[in-house]
Amino acid sequence: MAVCGSVYAVMGKTNAFENQILHGDCLEWLEKMPEGCIDLIFADPPYNLQLHGDLWRPNMTRVDAVEESWDQFDSFQHYDEFSQAWLSACRRVLKEDGTLWVIGSYHNIFRLGKIIQDLGYWILNDVLWIKTNPMPNFRGVRLTNAHETLIWASKSKGAKYTFNHHAMKALNDGKQMRSDWYLPICSGEERVKTEGRKAHPTQKPEALLYRVILSSSQPGDLVLDPFFGMGTTGVVAKKLHRRWIGIEREAGYVELAQARINKVIPEPYEEQVFDVRDHKRLAPRIAFTRLLEHGLLQPGEKLYFKADMERAAVIRPDGKLLMDGFEGSIHQVGRHLSGGAPCNGWEHWYYQRGGELNKIDVLREVLRRM
To answer: Are residues 89 and 166 in the same domain?
Structure first.
């Protein structure tokens, strides 16, 4: 087990801007970054809400809506030009195997989706963040807006990318993670406040960023947030031993985010703890015939599909299986027995020793340790 106070020292990665909040315009800072240096981007851009007039609760208290100048644009065209500029700049600094996450509401996510596709990104998923405690529609003239949409995209069609499938299954009680995420909005002690009022109108909850960063990056990866706000991306990245860069043009937000990140003291890095990749899939490939070469299985021996003694195949000297006249690899015969469904033969064929049935995958692990 590799143990170190920082995974960055283990991996030997450095970047001039890493673990810093860069104060200023994101386009200016992105121009200064080298091409292809970022592993993961999470972007929470202005939503261009187009709000008009004050919003009041039934008890006549005023709602703190998004009224800041950074969310106001003269027209849809102006907003589209702004969006195309920062998305283009982000694509330049993104690694070929990196991915982009963008979050938005119905006001802007459809415009962003078109631009993302036009620029050559390849959309992998859209995710609905379904808010378990949404703000009600106080005027009662529309449905309560209870979700936001995230777009997850690779840099180009066919590009490799990180997805920690098994880690996400673990977050979903062992079931494949779905694209609807039920999470509360940021509230309570997590919500940063100044003088008793929320400091940022659209602060995102750590739980949301936890899923984004854990799913699509590895320890030591460099995570960029070009609209850093209250620094939630940096907080979660630091806890998970990722490097991070935040860009924020509002000086007040920079100060509050930095203070928040300074309070985070992550647990010491241990590879077996923080590296959630499927190490079995990453292990060296082993040909089935090697089990025969090393005497772990014998030609002519029987294997049993899904431990069913009634479904036995015979091992040929060349490593193929023969069953009722059908011949093929452990995967091909398994697929044949499964009615054409994909089959990982290592997981479904069993051998018999001492009256007990065991997966042949056990023998593969024996070879890997030799």
So the answer is: yes
Query: Quick one: 226 and 192 in the same domain?
Result: yes
Q: H helices within the chain, ranges in order?
A: 7-11, 26-32, 76-93, 109-118, 165-171, 206-216, 232-239, 251-262, 271-274, 279-282, 289-293, 330-337, 345-348, 361-369
pLDDT over 80 at 57, yes or no: no
Of 195, 124, 192, nearest to 162 by C-alpha is 124
Quote the number of domains for the chain.
Answer: 2
Find the helix or strand (DSSP H, E) in which 95 lies. strand 94-104
Q: Which residues pair with 107 in a beta bridge?
A: none
DSSP assigned state of 136: P
Cα distances from 62 to residues 20, 46, 86, 190, in angstroms, run 36, 22, 33, 22
**What's the pLDDT score for residue 9?**
52
Q: Is the pLDDT of residue 40 over 50?
A: yes
- Checking if the pLDDT of 321 tops 80, the result is yes
> Are residues 180 and 138 both part of a single domain?
yes
Global pTM?
A: 0.77
Interval 196-202 mean pLDDT: 88
The whole-number pLDDT of residue 305 equals 97
Check whether residue 264 and residue 338 sit in a common domain.
Answer: no
Torsion of CA 48, 51, 56, 62, to 10 degrees: 60
**How buried is 19 (Cβ within 10 angstroms: 0-12 exposed, 13-18 middle, 19+ buried)?**
middle
Q: Which pLDDT value is given to residue 15? A: 83
- Same domain assignment for residues 315 and 209: no
Nearest of 355, 333, 353, 352 to residue 344 by alpha carbon: 333
Domain boundary among 280, 305, 338: 280
